[in-house]
Design brief:
Length: about 525
């Protein structure tokens, strides 16, 4: 394990260092070491080093990209996570039950893969509730270690957030409850134990949480779950020889595990039978480290209708949408009868240098999901021209209240400390945050308990895909991003929310901090510390 302050590429990049010298052999006639001989030996050594470096670099170059475009036989019907709308209790609350447990799944030929998850041991049901409802989720931990469940993108009190300060010990049940008060959106849930998030998510702990508008939202958007409104939870995995998830391989780029096999909703090589003219795909990048740049195999445009925090102001026609870990996008794809189309991830624009990009998935092309249209498709209405109110909590007037510099596995030169609150935000006050990566490695930024409005990217107005509500945003190197953020409801000076890089290896290495929401004019308190957070 690499220490937080060290560049893991240095430790991992062994192929670029020369092989060890062979053991010295005894010589019958020992030769005098002259300066010339030493120089010659040195030159030979240097040449050998250069040759080894070149060979190592060539090996790295040729082995560190993946291209599966057109090579996948899509033979498995896409699994659709079961829809869970919970039950009503006596007070009208919507109650869900989740059980975190180990399981196993037959993901590919050969042995079943040991998994973790909430849906009989892998991934989790899609929870669904409407704005205005009060929900309760009973999360029982039947794993062999402490975990947590964080509601990514949800506005809720910090004590319900499911970060590292709400551990669920083995055998215990945690029952957070909150009133949903935010626009319709595609959110998700996943563990967040301090230092162990990457492992828990990689083993399969993740599910979707759909928030609905009680009015039904704008008419015309496809909305039949699993039919023309389909969750697409994208994860990349490596498998070892026994079909186990391999958490340790391909760590060489310094972003954590990058897999060579893409799973959608836990299905390898998946296809979905399309039965309507338009299909809405709720894309969730639930991968530990990989950034995808989704498009369609024939290059046709699609309509981007939603991002992290809800619907965009209007559909945006595009042929690419890039999602870093934790980000979501809702797209609507239009198809003709009997055609086949592949959702493909093209090389993402990471904004990193040549080598870093190469080693962190920046040159990878991955086929994700085949869409198979039936010979007859049910007609779909045209998309509405207006979808939602644009975010309007801030303006790009040059003011910056807080700055977050991402570099060296730290944020603002600090490693995550459970006992340290980095800052307090006054309830009801809009702040402007500036996020900038000054690092070679790719990073993104996620804040808990809220959503934000992107004000500017590199000083310019945000592109269309960043004009809706966001809670996670990719931070290209040396491109300052300004966002307006507000924490509405409840002050709790002692219970922190997290802000962090959502590349889970980075988060687990400590690229995370804590903030609290206070009453205006009050100071942050002190977090109560629990045991069992690793
Ligand atoms: Cu990062």
């Amino acid at each position: 394990m690499t220490k937080p302050h060290e560049d893991p590429r240095a430790a991992d990049a062994q192929p670029t260092t020369p092989p060890p010298a062979p053991p010295p052999t005894a010589s019958a006639t020992p030769r005098r070491l002259t300066r010339r001989r030493l120089l010659k030996a040195g030159l030979i050594g240097t040449s050998a080093t250069i040759a080894a470096c070149a060979a190592g670099a060539a090996w790295l170059w040729t082995t560190s990209d993946i291209d599966t475009a057109g090579t996948i036989r899509f033979v498995n019907r896409l699994a659709v996570p079961p829809l869970d709308t919970g039950r009503r209790d006596g007070s009208g609350r919507r109650v869900f039950d989740l059980r975190a447990a180990v399981g196993s799944r037959r993901l590919r030929p050969g042995r079943p893969t040991p998994t973790w998850g909430f849906d009989n041991g892998h991934l989790g049901p899609t929870l669904r509730a409407a704005r205005g409802e009060t929900v309760v989720v009973n999360v029982r931990n039947e794993l062999t270690e402490t975990t947590t469940v964080h509601w990514h993108g949800m506005h809720l009190p910090a004590s319900m957030d499911g970060g590292p300060h709400q551990p669920i010990r083995v055998g215990a049940t945690w029952s957070p409850s909150w009133r949903i008060d935010q626009p319709a959106a595609t959110l998700w849930y996943h563990p967040h134990p301090h230092g162990r998030t990457g492992q828990h998510v990689y083993r399969g702990m993740a599910g979707m949480f759909i928030v609905d508008d009680p009015s039904g939202g704008p008419p015309g958007l496809p909305g039949r779950y699993g039919v023309d409104d389909v969750p697409v939870i994208v994860q990349d995995k490596n498998f070892d020889g026994d079909n186990r998830f391999d958490e340790a391989s391909r760590l060489i780029g310094g972003v954590g595990v990058l897999g060579d096999t893409v799973l959608v909703n836990g299905t390898i090589a998946p296809y979905h039978d399309v039965t309507a003219e338009r299909t809405r795909l709720r894309l969730l990048n639930a991968s530990n480290a990989r950034t995808y740049r989704f498009g369609l195999s024939d290059g046709r445009p699609f309509a981007l209708v939603g991002t992290d925090g809800g619907l965009l102001p209007a559909p945006h026609t595009t042929d690419r949408i890039q999602l870093s870990p934790g980000e979501r996008a809702e797209i609507v794809v239009t198809m003709r009868p009997s055609e086949r189309l592949v959702l493909r991830s093209h090389p993402p624009e990471l904004g990193a240098d040549f080598w870093t990009s190469r080693l962190t998935g920046g040159d990878d092309t991955l086929d994700v999901l085949e869409l198979r249209a039936a010979p007859r498709l049910t007609p779909s209405p045209a998309l509405p021209g207006v979808l939602a109110e644009p975010p309007r909590i801030g303006s790009a007037d040059g003011r910056v209240d807080r700055r977050f510099e991402l570099a060296n596995f730290m944020i603002n030169d600090r490693v995550m400390d459970m006992s340290r609150i980095d800052f307090g935000v006054a309830r009801g006050v809009t702040e402007v945050w500036e996020i900038v990566s000054t690092d070679l490695l790719p990073h993104n930024f996620h804040a808990h308990g809220t959503r934000f409005q992107v004000l500017s990217v590199g000083g310019a107005a945000p592109p269309p895909e960043l004009r809706g509500w966001k809670d996670t945003i990719y931070a290209p190197r040396q491109v300052p991003i300004r966002v307006a953020v507000r924490f509405g409801d409840q002050a709790d000076p002692n219970t922190p929310y997290m802000f962090h890089c959502h590349l889970l290896y980075h988060e687990d290495q400590g690229m995370m901090g804590q903030f609290v929401v206070t009453e205006p004019g009050r100071s942050p308190g002190r977090p109560a510390l629990h045991d069992g957070h690793g």
